[in-house]
């Protein structure tokens, strides 16, 4: 919701004059520019086009054009907060809350589940996620967690393997039943 | 046979109606559940629909889209928690009505206004789509390029905190569309030696990752937020007096919503907010707004549902998505082997009519279901998040895998989700990226074709009057918000009260 700009109010506690450059967005702009530079370098490594196909636009032109545009837009990022401040909007609202440890743990768990999927198989990976994620998020009704971890992956497997004819990764669990 | 009747015959199959009903139920549930969104649900539905015929597949997605937009109003009214962004404005007056014991009247009005807006926009859809497609048939690559550029420029004003970040996000989407083999020369681009990337980045894993995994991580940030219990409500239709009071509001909002929906990239949230503002502006009882005005429900609800039919117009007629959800529907169309745009209307007119009838059926179904089961749907919000989101993750994992039966796609989904979560924190929304990803191919293809025709003389892009018109629209799309703000400031300065802060 839009609020009145505190920097422009008269009287009361005054905030220090805001700087011209927003430091977080400066870092962000550097990251975006670095990505653009890396990708621009990649365009120099595209394979040579045979002479027969060299009419028209080379494959490097369009990506380079887009990279230049993104780079130009990224240069404005550190100053964008000025326009937002004028409109009474907080550019840092979404990122003001730091990333919680539980979010890192959740992300780590998701990566781990996907990483073990080739070995454990799709069904076992789903079951593992169905046990660990609720526990990680504070669910302590162990009976409900156990029932969920058994019923849900089986239902999904039935739907996809039985109904949609998708071949799941069997993994060790699948091989045990073969 | 007449394409309208063929379209009706195609959809009038008990199996198709069952799928539409399933789409509606999922849509209302997803709409009611805060955190779950229509784009996410449509993205998760894609792998299920790949095995279906194109018409039932797209009909199911379209039904979910319609119902999802309505579903958000249930929790907005009953527990002051909009289940979906388009219902934000509905909560402003819906919840105060519920708080004073008029939840049934509020829900009834939300359903009636939604159906009115939805059906109004569908009528516009069915008239405008063939007309627009007829005009677009005369487009050459350069006009298509200008049109796609206009579509991308609208990212500047798409809902979100920052036009600049929307454009950067869209730019990266366009760049992602260049991964893989260059169609003209056969050169590999940005594949980094990974064979899986030669065919490009798949829509399905990216869409699922951005919308589902990104939101899952965002939910992990808010585990400490508590929810208030839902009150028992008896749903009844609004009275004749209520309808007489809001009839003008509903018509205005339906027109606004349809128009906003037709604009490329503009979504139902913008339509809802504009519908609310206009309802208030035209009301004789402005002071009642925010305290439980029935026009405050009719306005945004008619507008946001009108946005769904409107958004389908550019999607099907031009191949330019009208919103984030229609961008996913467009991707699904491509995966079913269709080429969205004027050729679709020329070659398969019955397809467009079938989608029209499916959305019409969805509107009727969600009104009945929404009214009969509002209390039940509202209770869905109390499904523990500790079970709901692992289920979403399992569906995401399996959905991303099943399209190509490739583990690499699961990694793509996960990476898209992780990057999407961090990017969203910094204001780079997933919707502009998806629009860029979908429009990117069209922009490059038409640009390359036109450059070939023009013998690499780019000045010839400015010869066609249609191109010039779209370039003017593009500039308006890019700088319109800036100009509007400047004009607003000027008006503030000229006001005699001189109440501009700091002046």
Short description:
The complex is a heterodimer of chains A (178) and B (503). Chain A has 178 residues and is mostly helical. Chain A is built from seven helices and no strands.
Number of domain units of chain A: 2
Number of domains of chain B: 1
Strands of the widest sheet of chain B, in order across it, are: 1-2
The major beta sheet of chain B can be summarized as: 2 strands, antiparallel
Weakly predicted, low-confidence segments of chain A: 1-14
Which percent bin holds the helix content of chain B?
over 70%
Describe this entry's structure for a reader.
The complex is a heterodimer of chains A (178) and B (503). Chain A is built from 7 helices and no strands. By secondary structure, chain A is mostly helical. Chain A has 2 domains: 6-86, no CATH class; 101-176. The model of chain A is unreliable at 1-14 (pLDDT under 50). Chain B has 503 residues and is an all-alpha fold. Chain B has one domain (3-490). Chain B contains 19 helices and 2 strands. In chain B, strands 1-2 form a two-stranded antiparallel sheet. Chain B is globular, with a radius of gyration of 22 Å. Mean pLDDT of chain B is 84; it is low at 498-503. At the A-B interface, helix 1, helix 2, helix 4, helix 5 and helix 6 of A face helix 8, strand 2, helix 9, helix 16 and helix 17 of B.
Give the secondary structure arrangement, pairings included.
The complex is a heterodimer of chains A (178) and B (503).
Chain A: H1 23-43, H2 61-74, H3 80-86, H4 101-120, H5 122-136, H6 142-163, H7 171-176
Helix pairs in contact in A: 1-2, 4-5, 5-6
Chain B: H1 3-11, H2 14-32, H3 38-49, H4 54-79, H5 88-99, H6 103-136, H7 141-153, H8 163-177, E1 180-181, E2 188-189, H9 203-220, H10 240-262, H11 268-282, H12 295-317, H13 324-335, H14 342-347, H15 349-379, H16 385-404, H17 407-425, H18 430-453, H19 465-494
Antiparallel strand pairs in B: 1-2
Keywords:
heterodimer; A: 178 residues; mainly alpha; 2 domains; 59% helix; B: 503 residues; two-stranded antiparallel sheet; 19 helices; disordered C terminus
């Amino acid at each position: 919701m839009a609020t009145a700009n505190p920097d422009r109010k008269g009287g009361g506690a005054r905030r220090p004059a805001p700087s011209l450059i927003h430091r977080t967005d400066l870092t962000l702009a550097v990251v975006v520019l670095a990505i653009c530079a890396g990708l621009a370098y990649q365009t120099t490594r595209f394979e040579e086009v045979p002479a027969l196909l060299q009419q028209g636009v080379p494959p490097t032109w369009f990506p380079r054009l887009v990279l230049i545009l993104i780079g130009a837009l990224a240069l404005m990022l550190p100053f964008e907060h000025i326009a937002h401040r004028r409109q009474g909007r907080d550019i840092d609202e979404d990122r003001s809350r730091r990333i919680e440890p539980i979010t890192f743990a959740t992300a780590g768990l998701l990566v781990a589940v996907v990483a073990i999927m080739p070995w454990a198989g799709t069904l076992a990976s789903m079951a593992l996620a169905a046990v660990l994620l609720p526990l990680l998020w504070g669910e302590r009704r162990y009976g409900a967690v156990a029932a969920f971890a058994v019923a849900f992956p089986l239902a999904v497997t039935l739907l996809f393997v039985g109904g949609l004819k998708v071949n799941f990764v069997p993994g060790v669990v699948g091989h045990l039943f073969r | 046979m007449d394409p309208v009747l063929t379209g009706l015959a195609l959809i009038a199959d008990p199996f198709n109606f069952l799928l539409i009903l399933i789409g509606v139920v999922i849509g209302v549930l997803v709409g009611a559940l805060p955190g779950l969104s229509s784009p996410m649900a449509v993205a998760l539905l894609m792998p299920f629909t790949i095995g279906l015929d194109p018409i039932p597949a797209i009909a199911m997605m379209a039904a979910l889209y319609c119902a999802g937009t309505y579903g958000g109003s249930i929790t907005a009214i009953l527990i002051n928690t909009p289940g979906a962004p388009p219902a934000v404005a509905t909560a402003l007056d819906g919840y105060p009505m519920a708080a004073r014991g008029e939840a049934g009247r509020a829900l009834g009005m939300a359903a009636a206004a939604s159906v009115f807006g939805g059906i109004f926009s569908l009528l516009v859809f069915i008239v405008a789509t063939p007309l627009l497609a007829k005009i677009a048939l005369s487009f050459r690559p350069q006009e298509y390029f200008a049109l796609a550029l206009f579509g991308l420029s609208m990212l500047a004003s798409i809902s979100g905190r920052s036009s600049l970040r929307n454009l950067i996000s869209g730019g990266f989407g366009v760049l992602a569309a260049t991964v893989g083999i260059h169609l003209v020369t056969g050169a590999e681009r940005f594949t980094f030696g990974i064979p899986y990337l030669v065919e490009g980045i798949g829509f399905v894993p990216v869409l699922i990752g951005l919308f589902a995994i990104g939101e899952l991580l965002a939910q992990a940030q808010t585990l400490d937020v508590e929810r208030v219990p839902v009150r028992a409500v008896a749903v009844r239709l609004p009275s004749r007096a209520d309808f007489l009071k809001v009839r003008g509001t509903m018509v205005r909002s339906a027109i606004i919503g349809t128009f906003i929906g037709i604009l490329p990239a503009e979504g139902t949230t913008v339509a809802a907010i504009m519908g609310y503002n206009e309802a208030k502006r035209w009301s004789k009882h402005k002071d009642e707004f925010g305290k439980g005005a029935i026009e405050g429900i009719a306005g945004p609800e008619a507008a946001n549902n009108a946005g769904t039919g409107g958004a389908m117009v550019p999607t099907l007629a031009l191949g330019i998505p009208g919103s984030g959800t229609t961008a996913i529907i467009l991707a699904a169309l491509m995966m079913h082997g269709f080429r969205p745009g004027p050729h679709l209307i020329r070659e398969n007119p019955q397809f467009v009519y079938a989608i029209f009838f499916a959305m019409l059926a969805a509107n009727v179904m969600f009104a009945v279901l929404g009214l009969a089961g509002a209390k039940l749907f509202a209770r869905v919000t109390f499904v523990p998040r500790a079970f709901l989101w692992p289920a979403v993750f399992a569906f995401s994992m399996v959905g991303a895998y099943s399209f190509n039966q490739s583990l690499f796609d699961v990694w793509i989904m996960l990476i898209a989700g992780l990057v999407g979560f961090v990017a969203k924190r910094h204001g780079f929304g997933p919707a502009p990226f998806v629009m860029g990803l979908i429009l990117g191919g069209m922009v490059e293809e038409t640009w390359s074709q036109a450059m070939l025709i023009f013998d690499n003389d780019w000045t010839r892009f400015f010869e066609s009057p249609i191109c010039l018109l779209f370039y003017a629209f593009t500039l308006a799309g890019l700088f319109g918000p800036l100009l509007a703000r400047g004009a607003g400031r000027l008006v503030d300065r000229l006001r005699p009260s001189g109440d501009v802060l700091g002046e």
